[in-house]
Write a structure and sequence with these properties.
Blueprint (H helix, E strand, L loop, with lengths): L4 H10 L4 E5 H4 L2 H13 L3 E5 L9 H8 L4 E3 L6 H17 L18
Parallel strand pairs: 1-2, 2-3
Helix pairs in contact: 1-3, 4-5
Length: about 120
């Protein structure tokens, strides 16, 4: 589906998945991205926030993942500065949230009913 609400709606209707891959810069606007994430949650799907290949050090997807309670973030291994920037932002967010920060752990998969 990759953040395309029209195709995603068709997939939900046919029941062909349980998650959507969210690529912030693929759909067009932040509003459309947030609508796609909300659509996923309303349908009982999870959202995986992802960057695109050829990514920069912009860490906005880390903020988006936390702000929308996405179950996962897909940004690759800790091997390049563009990826490390996103993990560093997640650590900063955790530090700012303090005790209210929550790591989902295995419960991230409860919605999917696979564990």
């Amino acid at each position: 589906f990759v953040t395309n609400p029209k195709i995603f709606a068709e997939g939900i209707e046919k029941g062909i998945a349980n998650s959507i891959l969210i690529k912030l810069n693929q759909i067009g606007t932040l509003t459309e991205t947030l609508k796609a994430i909300d659509m996923a949650y309303q349908a009982g799907y999870t959202a995986v926030v992802s960057h695109r290949s050829g990514e920069t050090e912009d860490s906005t997807i880390a903020d988006l993942a936390v702000a929308t309670s996405a179950t996962q973030i897909k940004t690759g291994s800790l091997c390049r500065s563009d990826r490390i920037a996103k993990y560093n932002q997640l650590l900063r967010i955790e530090d700012q949230l303090g005790a209210s920060a929550k790591y989902a752990g295995k419960s991230a998969f409860d919605l999917l009913g696979i564990l």
